[in-house]
Amino acid sequence: GKIKVRVKPKSKSKGKGKQRKEERGSSYDEDEDEDDDDENENENSRAELEYMMERHLRGLYRAAREHARHSLRVRLRMSPESSRIESMMVLPCLTRDHVERTPSLRHSYRDIWKRLMRREQETGRTLKVREVAATVMESLQDLAERTVTEDGFVESTIVAQVSVRCREVFCVWDLELDEVVQGDPLGKVNDVTHLVRFEMPVRMNVETAELEQGSWQITDWDDLLGGNIWFL
């Protein structure tokens, strides 16, 4: 059956709330050359990356570029061929933004697990399914009341891991050594599969149960950030 979380919305503050960003999509096909310094193109690319990639992942690539921009030249062309969802889960009543604004919320789900362990210690036995469900729902109710927005929405997160098969050309030149240190200098096309992690926030109106979808955002790929996990 459907799980319902009853939450009273916080009192609204005066003034209009911030408008939600519209969902945007983008394809990625880049042959990077540091000599190409078209300002308009760079501005558009940065704007797209703001929507496409989570800031920690952007920061990783920005730091790598700043560190090696005068010593390495990278060529990358990729064409996605197919994709498959490997896993998907929902994190009720919690989003990355919640945790960034209120760091104490980061361990909310770990705290639910600890609460279950304490219940088992108190009873001296393994909890029954209905007892586990009741404890989890009570904890989620508390979490929803802590995170409900002023306009009466409870926000949750959908996390998906997707394998993406690509046709890819990749090559790294060491400018100081004047030689290729990774990849194929002749531009050989390879079949490569990347594991990409996406997140999308969703909002539910506590009065009408109306759902609002956010935008998918890339939060990690090939475990460069160890999953970029923020909820444990």
Task: Describe it.
It is elongated, with a radius of gyration of 23 Å. The chain has helices spanning 39-52, 55-68, 96-101, 108-123, 129-147; strands at 72-91, 153-174, 179-183, 190-205, 211-213, 217-221. The model is unreliable at 13-30 (pLDDT under 50). Strand 2 and strand 3 (179-183) form a beta hairpin. It has one domain. It has 232 residues and is α+β, with helices and mostly antiparallel strands. Strands 1, 2, 3, 4, 5 and 6 form a six-stranded antiparallel β-sheet that branches.
Task: Lay out the secondary structure.
Elements: H1 39-52, H2 55-68, E1 72-91, H3 96-101, H4 108-123, H5 129-147, E2 153-174, E3 179-183, E4 190-205, E5 211-213, E6 217-221
Helix pairs in contact: 4-5
List segments where confidence is low: pLDDT < 50 over at least 5 consecutive residues.
Answer: 13-30
The main pleated sheet reads as:
6 strands, antiparallel
Number of distinct helices = 5
| Total domain modules | 1
Helix content: 25-40%
CA(first)-CA(last) distance:
28 Å
